[in-house]
């Protein structure tokens, strides 16, 4: 599974970081999301799914390889 | 409204008034008239203060679809924008562009320029300071007379202290900003009264902002002063953002502390779970469930359609106003089974209590932090906490932006 982040849509609410801190971080200057793991391991996918579900900008997608 | 009614004035008695009255016997539940609307006519219309009849969106899934739809605008300069009251309608044409009244890409630029202080790691770094404030306020309450009003002892001072510290506003001035920000949001006051309070807050912040431009400190107003000097935002934008943060930063969290405590005291089994848990994840989940259950922002999010939007078998026309009732969606059983039950163990994270879409609450991470610390501390420190007045005697605030109690007498 691969994570896609649509950066221009990101409103930097940080919800992905709260849900899935191993996969997402925020840029210091404006809080825009940073993808730490493009292909996170199986054990992280539940958290990533939560991040996808709660992102208020609908800027994250989890796609099948 | 069905398409057959298109073009006829919405004067039919079936168009309900909004906001809707609550049932005095169930003060924490949504207005009873909302439930059948959501379940039988999820895309209906409602009549607001000026006679306009915007769409009333009540289902969780519909709210999420429309609040992330780029054709749905937050630009309150639009002529048919369904303003919350006469005051907001009167000031809209004179309000500068802010995160609260713009759309992408302008909104994205503005939001990113004020996001720094609300980064998850910066909020998390505040946890020890917030814990100290909560501990001290509880110490003071316990050292004072029993019973006490939880609002004045803890619920109001905590968020005021935190937002004042974050912004760099001297807490000694809290009477000025607390009183005026409550009045700005109070729909029972005349537009003139609310505007006078708005001007007083604006002048106060403007004076303070000039001081921060001269002598910057380690706070959010100084950070915005730096952005103004660098040409990244205007002076007016910065002052207006400061006012908005000051207003948004305390009434909301104060209400969640007091109304959340009331809800827990009325659900002793749930209160016991929270009191006995040492798991930060459980406490965090409990905060989100209380946010869902109480949905204190009860005056409806307001938007306007920029283009025609087909949804279900309806067409929302360009220029139509939209109202999103957050508690209706947060009690939608399609999203939250047995939604009328307060269940601190349920997964509640997908609630709309902070709104949804790009305008979702800027301060939500700060609010969650304050609530996690309060809910995780108060009931452990004061295990005998109980209501000191029958619930029938509590006065609820129906006219502010948030729905809460005016006073919460507690004993221990």
Tell me about this structure.
- The complex is a heterodimer of chains A (65) and B (412).
- Chain A has two helices and four strands.
- Chain A is α+β, with helices and mostly antiparallel strands and 65 residues long.
- Chain A has one domain (2-63): Alpha-Beta Plaits (2-Layer Sandwich).
- In chain A, the strands form two sheets. A two-stranded antiparallel ribbon of chain A has the order 1-4. A two-stranded antiparallel sheet of chain A has the order 2-3.
- The radius of gyration of chain A is 10 Å and the shape is globular.
- Chain B has a single domain (3-407), classed as Cytochrome P450 (Cytochrome p450, Orthogonal Bundle).
- Chain B is α+β, with helices and mostly antiparallel strands and 412 residues long.
- Chain B is globular and about 60 Å long.
- Classes of the chains: A alpha+beta (65), B alpha+beta (412).
- The interface between A and B is medium-sized, with 21 and 23 residues.
Alpha-carbon Rg of chain A, integer:
10 Å
Distance between the termini of chain B: 52 Å
Unreliable runs of chain B: 1-8
Tally the helices of chain B: 16
Strand content of chain A: 15-25%
CATH top level assignment of chain A: Alpha Beta
- From N to C, what is the helix and strand string of chain B? HEEHEHHHHEHHHHHHHHEEEEHHEEEE
Can you tell me the number of structural domains of chain B? 1
Helix content of chain A: 10-25%
Strand order of the largest sheet of chain B: 1-2-8-5-3
Total helical segments of chain A: 2
The dominant shape of chain A is globular
Structural class of chain B: alpha+beta
CATH class of chain B: Mainly Alpha
- Which CATH architecture of chain B? Orthogonal Bundle
Global geometry of chain B: globular
Low-confidence stretches of chain A: none
Chain oligomer state: heterodimer
Structural class of chain A: alpha+beta
Q: Tell me the greatest interface.
A: A-B, 21 and 23 residues
Task: Please state the average pLDDT score of chain B.
Answer: 91
């Amino acid at each position: 599974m691969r994570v896609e982040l649509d950066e221009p849509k990101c409103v930097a609410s940080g919800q992905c970081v709260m849900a899935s801190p191993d996969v997402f971080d925020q840029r210091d200057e404006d809080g825009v999301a940073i993808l730490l793991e493009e292909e996170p391991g199986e054990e992280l996918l539940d958290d990533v799914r939560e991040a996808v579900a709660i992102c208020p900008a609908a800027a994250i997608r989890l796609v099948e390889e | 409204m069905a398409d057959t009614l298109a073009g006829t004035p919405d004067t039919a008695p079936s168009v309900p008034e909004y906001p809707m009255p609550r049932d005095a016997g169930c003060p924490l539940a949504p207005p009873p008239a909302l439930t059948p609307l959501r379940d039988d006519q999820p895309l209906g219309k409602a009549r607001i203060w000026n006679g306009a009849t915007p769409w009333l969106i009540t289902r969780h899934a519909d709210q999420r679809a429309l609040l992330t739809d780029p054709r749905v605008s937050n630009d309150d300069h639009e002529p048919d924008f369904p303003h919350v009251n006469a005051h907001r309608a009167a000031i809209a044409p004179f309000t500068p562009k802010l995160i609260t009244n713009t759309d992408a890409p302008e909104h994205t630029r503005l939001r990113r320029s004020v996001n720094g202080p609300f980064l998850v790691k910066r909020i998390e770094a505040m946890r020890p300071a917030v814990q100290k404030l909560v501990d001290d306020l509880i110490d003071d309450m316990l050292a004072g007379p029993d019973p006490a009003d939880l609002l004045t002892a803890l619920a109001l001072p905590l968020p005021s202290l935190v937002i004042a510290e974050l912004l760099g506003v001297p807490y000694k001035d809290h009477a000025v900003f607390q009183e005026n920000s409550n009045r700005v949001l109070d729909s029972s006051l005349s537009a003139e009264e609310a505007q006078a309070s708005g001007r007083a807050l604006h002048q106060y912040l403007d004076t303070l902002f000039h001081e921060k431009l001269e002598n910057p400190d380690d706070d959010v107003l100084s950070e915005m002063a730096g952005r103004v000097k660098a040409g990244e935002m205007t002076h007016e934008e910065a002052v207006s953002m400061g006012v908005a943060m000051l207003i948004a930063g305390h009434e909301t969290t104060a209400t969640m502390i007091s109304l959340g405590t009331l809800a827990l005291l009325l659900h002793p089994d749930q209160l016991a779970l929270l009191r006995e848990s040492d798991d930060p994840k459980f406490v965090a989940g409990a905060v989100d469930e209380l946010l869902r259950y109480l949905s204190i922002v009860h005056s409806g999010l307001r938007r306007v359609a920029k283009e025609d939007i087909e949804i279900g078998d309806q067409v929302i026309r360009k220029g139509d106003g939209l109202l999103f009732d957050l508690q209706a969606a947060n009690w939608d059983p399609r999203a939250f089974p047995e939604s009328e039950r307060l269940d601190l163990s349920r997964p509640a994270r997908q609630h709309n209590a902070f709104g949804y879409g790009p305008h979702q609450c800027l301060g939500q991470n700060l609010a969650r932090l304050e609530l996690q610390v309060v809910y995780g501390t108060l009931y452990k420190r004061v295990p005998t906490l109980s209501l000191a007045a029958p619930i029938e005697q509590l006065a609820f605030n129906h006219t502010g932006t948030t729905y809460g109690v005016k006073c919460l007498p507690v004993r221990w």
